[in-house]
Structure formats: structure tokens, C-alpha cells
Design brief:
Length: 235
């Protein structure tokens, strides 16, 4: 299997390129617009055909490469069913399985960071890994203070959905700010400081008091991402 975890230093975003085999079909999760030339080169070098590009949610900190990848590779662009991005090729429902050349990804609706965030479980019949977008991070969780985020929903998504996956399921987040690359469900259940030993009320309290500044790119990234990564020049 081809598994590449790619990093955008500017936004600390992880992008994942997956394929069953060299010469086969591939999919990409959470690609960043500025990295388009690198993705195209890597896809060519690995001799894979990109057929699907997925965003876990509408990002506020970087512009998506979904629209550009669709133009360049004719891939299908996908987001969860509740996205407001009208331009995606298709929307996936909770429980739906995306199959790329036998590589299976189960869509799991995990709102909280935004109200339209999805996670994707690799091999849902026998989970191997989960791509959590920004709802569950390594030893952290995605902020819930904008884009219809909700700490109660975040708790439910993490505790009642993601933490129901087997403990050895690997966790691949949408971001990491310290350079940590992977965790596991068991590790996060045990050691995530926002969740381990905390009640739902304590978690909500923590999330309501983070007092984070808005992402620098938010006013550009959100409208652009609703338009599949087309950045409009301000008038
Ligand atoms: Fe996000």
C-alpha cells in the first residue's frame, strides 16, 4: 500500500495520499492549494491515477486544492453531506464507504470543530486508521468557536464515535503544531489532556475558554474553500 503523509509548513496541515498499489488509483485527503505542483509530481512519480480528492471539512486556515486537482487530474471531489461548498462533485453520507481500487474508507459524521466535519476510517470492517480532520488531534482537539463549531458535539463525536473504534486504530489528524505525526485511539483515550478523566461539562468548559485568535487566513480561506479553492480578489 502507498501511504504518504505530506505536510504544509505554513498552516501545519497534514495531507494524505493513499493507494493500494503503484500503477493503481489513488485518493488524497485535505490537499493544500499551494502544494498542487508537489502533489502532481508525486502522483506522476508513483505512477498512480488520482481519482478522488476529499476535504474533511471547510478549512479556515488554508485554501483547498480540491478544485485545482479536479481541473488537472479529472478526479472527483468529495466532502461530507452537510458541506455548504456547492461546487464539490459529490457528497458522502454518514456510513457510506468510498472504494478506490479496493482501498476502502468509511465516512463517519463527526461534527464539533465545524457542523459539517467528517472523519474517514481506513478499512471500516476492520479499522486500521482514522483520518480525523480537526475534530480529534494528537493530545488535543480542534477548536469549536467558529464555523458552527460546538463543544458538546465535539465531545459526542470523539467519545461516542471515534473512541468506539478499536484501541489500536491509528489516528492521523488534519494538523499538528508540534510535528507529531500519528497517534492511536487507545493513546488518545488514555492521554488526551482535554478528554482523559474529564466529564463532558469539564470538556465544554475547557473549549469555551481557549480564547484563540482567529486564523490569519480565515477571511480568505473560508469563502475560497466554499468555492473549491477559487480565491477571489477583494474589490
Ligand atoms: Fe479546521
Amino acid at each position: 500500500m502507498i501511504f504518504r503523509q505530506l505536510y504544509d509548513h505554513t498552516s501545519s496541515t497534514y495531507t494524505y495520499l493513499l493507494a493500494r498499489r503503484h500503477g493503481g488509483e489513488a485518493l488524497i485527503i485535505d490537499p493544500v492549494k499551494e502544494k498542487l505542483p508537489e502533489y502532481l509530481q508525486l502522483i506522476q512519480q508513483l505512477k498512480v491515477k488520482l481519482v478522488k480528492a476529499i476535504d474533511t471539512h471547510t478549512h479556515a486556515d488554508h485554501v483547498t486544492a480540491l478544485g485545482d486537482l479536479r481541473e488537472q487530474t479529472q478526479c472527483v471531489t468529495l466532502m461530507g453531506e452537510y458541506t455548504k461548498a456547492e461546487c464539490v462533485s459529490a457528497r458522502v453520507r454518514d456510513g457510506e464507504v468510498i472504494d478506490v481500487d479496493g482501498l476502502r474508507l468509511g465516512a463517519l459524521y463527526t461534527p464539533g470543530h465545524t457542523d459539517e466535519s467528517f472523519s474517514f476510517v481506513l478499512n471500516p470492517d476492520r479499522p486500521e486508521a482514522v483520518f480525523t480532520g480537526d475534530v480529534l488531534l494528537i493530545r488535543g482537539t480542534g477548536r469549536t468557536d467558529f464555523q458552527a463549531g460546538d463543544p458538546e458535539k465535539s465531545w459526542d463525536s470523539i467519545v461516542n464515535k471515534l473512541f468506539k473504534l478499536p484501541d489500536d486504530t491509528l489516528v492521523y489528524p488534519g494538523h499538528d503544531y508540534k510535528g507529531w505525526t500519528v497517534s492511536s485511539i487507545g493513546e488518545e483515550r488514555q492521554y488526551n489532556p482535554r478528554l482523559a478523566g474529564k466529564t463532558r461539562e469539564e470538556y465544554v468548559q475547557i473549549m469555551q475558554n481557549l480564547n484563540l485568535p482567529n486564523p490569519k487566513l480565515m477571511d480568505i480561506a473560508v469563502p475560497a474553500n466554499l468555492a473549491c479553492g477559487k480565491v477571489r480578489q477583494a474589490a
